[in-house]
Design a protein that fits this description.
Blueprint (H helix, E strand, L loop, with lengths): L4 H22 L1 H8 L3 H5 L3 H23 L3
Helix pairs in contact: 1-4
Length: 72
Amino acid sequence: MAVNWLAVIAAALSSFVLGGIWYSALFAKPWMKAAGLTEEQVRSGNPVTIFGGSFVLAFIACATFALFLGSE
């Protein structure tokens, strides 16, 4: 089974961008309240680890979907 890696990267990037919009611009305050976090705690996190980890996990999810749902 051949995987279209360009499509996987595009899907991971779009997931990453939409997640960023969702959790920052649209629902940052309700998300922080539900997670029990303060703005100081969110700011003190390492952005490279947070965003890098988010992209890697989005890539893994998209690659898994491509493997199981891809068609030939």
